Automatic annotation (TrEMBL):
Spans through the membrane: 17-38, 147-168, 195-212, 224-245, 432-453, 459-481
Protein name from the UniProt record: DUF3592 domain-containing protein
Keywords noted in UniProt: Membrane, Transmembrane, Transmembrane helix
Organism: Alloalcanivorax xenomutans
Domain DUF3592: 54-142
Pfam family, one: DUF3592
Superkingdom of origin: Bacteria
Length: 573
């Protein structure tokens, strides 16, 4: 038996249970926070809508303070007396809310009101249950601060916990037997993922449902903060829509099982296989297949716990399509270096291998991932791709990379020399995503700050956290969207000018005399599901430093093609 595979099996159960337990704690904590802080008072508010209001005399009241870890929370205790249908009752139930907190100044205001009524011997109004007159409340109002905190705090924890549970179990299921065995492997981002989105979206729509009518009534009275509750069904509907769209896409392509050969794959040999698509696909259709080796390590513990993910190796190729009458097969075959590690999990460190496939058919995108077993070995694959296909794929990739480089970076001859322009507004998906994410956080922070000005308490802390992150990301996104770089190369002089929205910011220059001075470097690397997207910068450098020639080039191959084109234009090759 392979040693790496044995290590994987031995170490998988303990860490898997631990990770599931960790995720379950997040999920249960979030649901509990949503229930006790937000939903339970909403249910009570709805149930007490038919209760009757009667005068009550406050016999005793006090504001309770509890200090722990430098934070003070409050609650109110009171005893009052009232009459209903000729009988006298005494109660100590004060509010729909139990326990103590410091979301806002609700308890302080309530304590002042009750104490003033007691000292002046003025009656207050109590809400009395007509079916059980011994049950009553002095304060029935809903607290916007509690609703915001309960749904925001609890919702985030529940989503994180549920998402982690899904991710951990999906990874375990998708990885299958690390020793292989010839069984098809199913994608880890297919049907179950769409069902997860639909169910979680439905939860976000239904959980706050008892408060919808109350929020509308509160807004009619001028308490517009209660409308915050409608953000949750809005998010839920968007999540559900994403799940339904993904479900339709899944049904179009089918389960897409992957059959490996050799099984398991070989680090030092080949990783090959074929993906079954449940419909006829034209032979000319293009599907990009990627193979990645990913290392993960968990560091720290408690609040300092984090997981570092590093892509050790990655390679792409065009899949070879064999089309049938009712279904089709996309084949691939990678030569894998022998110095890469096999699949394993030991303690806090693990290595997993992933096959990804992307393509488009009839306007529908296909994107599937499979976690596969890989061991050390030198076995080849029976899925050997035709040499003509391999050569055509290489040529098309080089042409696509050059076209991408020319689209991203403008290179042209002018009277001043060779001009290289990195225009503003490129890579809009990355920057607009950052702007949208930051804008949402900034809007929530601003909303919470407005609430905090009226109600105080923990809302100031939440407003600072959301607002600080949000406005920082917005500022960064706006700078990235507006910046541009123009470089003029005349003779051996390189002169660069940085601008933002056309406003000059700085200028630099240096001498470029040989090809070795023009170097390509990675600027930003993002990893999503084991898939790396690199954004490259091109520099002219000497012993005194470096000057940026082009920036934000999406893809290493596009950066390499741009470098080769500039060297040809400058007659340095």
């Amino acid at each position: 038996m392979n040693e790496a595979a044995s290590d994987t099996r031995k170490g998988s159960k303990g860490p898997g249970c631990l990770l599931n337990g960790f995720a379950a704690v997040f999920l249960l904590a979030g649901l509990a926070a949503m229930y006790f802080i937000a939903l339970k008072p909403l249910f009570h508010y709805w149930q007490t809508d038919s209760w009757e209001r009667v005068p009550a005399q406050v016999l005793d009241s006090r504001l309770n303070r509890s200090t722990s870890d430098g934070s003070t929370t409050y609650s109110v205790s009171a005893r009052y007396q009232y009459q209903y249908q000729g009988r006298t009752y005494t109660s100590e139930s004060v509010s729909l809310y139990g326990g103590s907190d410091n979301f806002d100044d609700f308890w302080q205001r309530l304590a002042r009101r009750l104490e003033q009524a007691r000292l002046a011997q003025q009656p207050v109004l109590a809400w009395v249950n007509p079916d059980q007159p011994e049950k009553a409340y002095l304060e029935r109002g809903l607290r916007s601060g509690s609703l915001v905190f309960g749904f925001a705090f609890g919702g985030v924890f529940a989503l994180v916990g549920g998402g982690l549970l899904f991710f951990f179990n999906r990874r375990a299921k998708a990885s299958g037997n690390p020793e292989g065995g010839g069984e098809p492997i199913y994608s880890s981002n297919q049907k179950s993922g769409h069902g997860f989105l639909i169910v979680f979206g439905l939860i976000f729509v239904l959980l706050p449902a008892p408060g919808y009518q109350s929020a509308i009534e509160g807004a009619a009275r001028g308490d517009y903060a209660m409308l915050f509750i409608f953000l949750f069904p809005l998010v839920g509907l968007l999540v559900m829509a994403g799940g339904l769209v993904g479900r339709r896409r899944y049904k179009f392509f089918g389960p897409t099982p992957l059959t490996l050969d050799p099984d398991p794959g070989q680090a030092g040999g080949q990783v090959g296989g074929e993906v079954l698509i449940s419909r006829a696909v034209p032979h000319s259709a293009r599907f990009t297949v990627s193979l990645s080796c990913v290392h993960q390590e968990t560091r720290g513990s408690g609040d300092d716990r984090r997981t570092d993910t590093t892509v050790l190796w990655q390679s792409d190729q065009g899949g070879y399509v064999e089309s049938g009458m009712r279904d089709s097969r996309v084949q691939f075959c990678f030569d894998v270096p022998g110095d890469l590690p096999p699949t394993y999990q030991r303690g806090r460190q693990s290595v997993y291998w992933q096959v990804s496939m992307k393509g488009e058919l009839d306007g529908r995108e296909l994107h599937r991932d499979w976690s596969i077993p890989v061991i050390q070995g030198d076995v080849g694959s029976r899925f050997t791709l035709p040499e003509s296909h391999v050569e055509e794929d290489r040529r098309q990739r080089e042409e696509a990379a050059l076209a991408s480089a020319r689209e991203q970076i403008v290179v042209k001859r002018t009277g001043q020399g060779l001009t290289v322009t990195s225009r503003a507004g490129r890579n809009l998906g990355l920057k607009l995503g950052l702007l949208l994410f930051g804008g949402i956080f900034a809007a929530v922070g601003t909303f919470l700050l407005v609430l905090a000005l009226d109600e105080g308490g923990m809302l100031y802390l939440m407003a600072g956290a959301f607002g600080g992150v949000g406005y920082g990301l917005v500022a960064l996104a706006l700078y990235m969207l507006g910046r541009s770089l123009q470089v003029v190369i005349r003779g051996d002089e390189v002169r660069s000018r940085r601008r933002w929205l056309g406003i000059p910011l700085r200028q630099r220059s240096m001498r470029l005399r040989n090809a070795d001075q023009l170097v390509l470097d990675s600027a930003v690397r993002s990893t999503t599901n084991g898939r790396v997207q690199e954004y490259m910068n091109l520099y002219a450098q000497d012993e005194s430093g470096r000057v940026r020639v082009a920036e934000g080039i999406a893809g290493q191959q596009a950066g390499e093609q741009l470098r080769e084109e500039l060297l040809r234009e400058l007659h340095l090759v």
